[in-house]
Amino acid sequence: MERKILQPRFKDSQHFKDFWTKGNGKHLIDFSGAEVDFKDFDKFSKYFYHVDELGDEVVKEVYFTKKYSEASREIENYIRNGVAEHEDVPESVQKLFRQTQTVPDWLDYNLLKSGAELCMRCNLDSLISLRDYCLIGGYDYAYLNKPLIVTEALKKGAVKRLSETLDFWVNVTRYDALEVHKKGYEFAIKTRLIHSYARLSIKKHYRNWDTENWGEPINSWDMMATYIGFSLVFMHSLHKLGNTISKEEEKGHFHLWKYVGYLLGIPEELLPDNKKQATEYFYLWTSIQPSSDKDSVLLAHSLLNESLENPILKYKFQRRNLRYLHICCTWYLLGDDVCKRLQIPDVPFKKGFPVTKRMINKIYDSTVSREARIQKGNKDQTKVLADYLRVTQNSNFHH
User: Fold this and answer.
1) What is the DSSP string of 230-295?
2) pLDDT at position 397, please?
3) Residues near 375 by beta carbon (within 8 Å), at least 6 away in sequence
4) Residues with pLDDT less than 70, the chain
5) Where would I find the ER-bound oxygenase mpaB/mpaB'/Rubber oxygenase catalytic domain in this sequence (predicted)?
6) Residue pair 354/362 in contact by the 8 Å Cβ criterion
7) DSSP letter string over 91-113?
8) Which residues lie below 8 Å from residue 140, measured CB to CB, with a gap of 6+?
9) What's the pTM?
10) What angle in degrees, to the nearest 10, is found between the helix axes of 352-367 and 316-334?
11) Distance between CA 360 and CA 368 in Å, rounded?
């Protein structure tokens, strides 16, 4: 079937224009100095129909030929110990590990360290940003969510999904985590293969997948947008919450996510080096995404209600209070238009908490040493992750 040439089909729609002229898109342009236009659209749009074929081949040759647990053990062994050339290993596996164990020329370990330090230093603000801006903001893009909907992620529940995202994020943003065979490297490879497994399962079982409109499932362009969420959008959120970010940290943060993207099999020309590039790339991608649909609203509400379902906090009033604080941050970070589309509940005094937090951050940043903030952030984030893993791995928790 001849596929139509992709156009920036939503560039004249209200949600696109509002986002880039008065919403967070405008703030991103101001924040980054980006110059947005459509001259590079064709260069990027082809990736809407492009996937990580290397990852897919590994899944076909390893996961689809044996029990899932057996396949996972085999891949884990390669991740931790490498693949010897002479071993009897499928060609696709050799190729995948050749790529991921070859450190690209551009990689700078000092920059990776600065990027990891920014993530740790901003402590709970990092987790608020991930959840109340990056994750929930992503739900506003209807086509981006389709793989989540068709693989029935809603049934798995938001606690589990958040726990998995947190597990990935914490493990790739620690010191030296991305060195070959280390924990962050392992998470990147496993996540890459989970994406391939999900993509092949969707293609096999979901007959109604609309490739022309939605792109290939978990395509390279959507992956770029997701990783711009972890880099640009995340950093913009920290900025909104009053964190000061040095030039070195900013450069390091983009470098870190560029390398994670490389390990995940995202084509290098889709991985931005700085906030200006990231905003320009993101602008093009948003022009092919319609705004929220009913699935978006369901995903957003599932995430908001996670605080009520999650047994980490013992008492109901604590859980209700936590949900309220997340709602306040969501309104503050995402803005009115997106929150109304996602039907985020309107709550009283919603600016109170984020504005207070912003003021406290300004003081904290100028009075506590950077070193102490990094240490405390690492400790607090690791504790939150441990709490999540405890409740999701607890056999009584079936959400």
Assistant:
1) IIIIHHHHHHHTT----HHHHHHHHHHHHHHHHHTT--GGGS-SSHHHHHHHHHHHHTT-----HH
2) 43
3) none
4) 1-4, 85-86, 154, 394-399
5) 156-346
6) no
7) HHHHHHHHHHHS--TT--HHHHH
8) 291, 292, 296, 334, 338, 341, 342
9) 0.95
10) 80
11) 12
CA 286, CA 133: separation in Å to the nearest integer? Answer: 16
Q: Which two tokens mark 37?
A: 């236009």
pLDDT score, position 358: 96
Count the neighbouring beta carbons within 10 Å of the beta carbon of residue 320: 12
pLDDT value of position 156: 80
First to last CA, the chain: 41
- For residue 86, what pLDDT is reported? 60
Copy the structure tokens of residue 44. 């990027």
For 64, 86, 91, 194, 337, the CA distances from 67, given in Å and listed in that order, are 8, 25, 20, 15, 46
Candidates 356, 362, 354, 309; CA nearest to 334 is 354
| Torsion from C-alpha of 229, 234, 240, 241, nearest 10 degrees | 140
Residues written for the chain: 399
* Tokens 């726990």, residue located: 163
Q: What's the DSSP call for residue 66?
A: S
Q: Which long-range contacts (CB under 8 A, 24 or more apart) does 355-358 make?
A: 357/125, 357/241, 357/242, 358/240, 358/241, 358/242
203: left (phi over 0), alpha (psi -120 to 50) or beta: alpha
Q: How far apart are CA 25 and CA 337, in angstroms?
A: 12
**64 residue type, one letter:** F
Tokens 């690791």 sit on residue? 382
